[in-house]
Structures are given as C-alpha cells and as structure tokens.
Amino acid sequence: MANYLSLHGTGLFGMIVSRNGMDNGGNQTRREQWILYNKLVLVLTDEDLTQMLETKKADDSPESLIRQKIEDFRLGV
Question: For residues 45 and 21, is the Cβ–Cβ distance under 8 A?
Fold first, then answer.
C-alpha cells in the first residue's frame, strides 16, 4: 500500500481494514514507512469498525477512534 502513497498522488495517509489486524512484520513495516518516508498507514479491525458504528449510533463522533489510533501509533514509535 505504501507504494501508492505520495505527495503528488493520494497523499501520505492510508488505512487498511483487516479482520485480524497486523502481525509484527507488518507493524515494523508501518513504523519504517512513518520514520523514513512520513507515510502513515493505519490498520482498523472489525472491532474498530463496530466501535465506530456504535459511537455514531450514540450521536458521537466516530472519527475520534481514528484520531486516537493515530495518536497511539505516533506515541508508540
């Protein structure tokens, strides 16, 4: 996915939705993409999507989960 992210194309932010999340190798690659190329790839799971739907159903902001995942990733690097 990172190959498609560029300043002159889609931008430097992408999301992957995966039933099982990301393994250690995938997480290492995500960190490398962030550190070396400023490309941020977020991974969402079924549980994340369910939480976002429930949040929207409660008339709250589902994008807050995305903001939190971005913050968690950046603090974890």
Answer: yes
- Residue 40's identity, in one-letter code, is L
Q: Provide the pLDDT for residue 50.
A: 97
Contacts 24+ apart (CB under 8 A), 13-16: 13/39, 13/40, 13/41, 13/42, 14/39, 14/40, 14/41, 14/42, 15/41, 15/42, 15/43, 15/44, 15/66, 16/41, 16/42, 16/43, 16/44
The two three-digit tokens of residue 53, written as one number: 């739907």
Alpha-carbon distance of 36 to 12, in angstroms, equals 12
Instruction: Output the pLDDT for position 31.
Output: 97
Tell the burial category of 54 from Cβ atoms under 10 Å away from its Cβ (0-12, 13-18, 19+). exposed
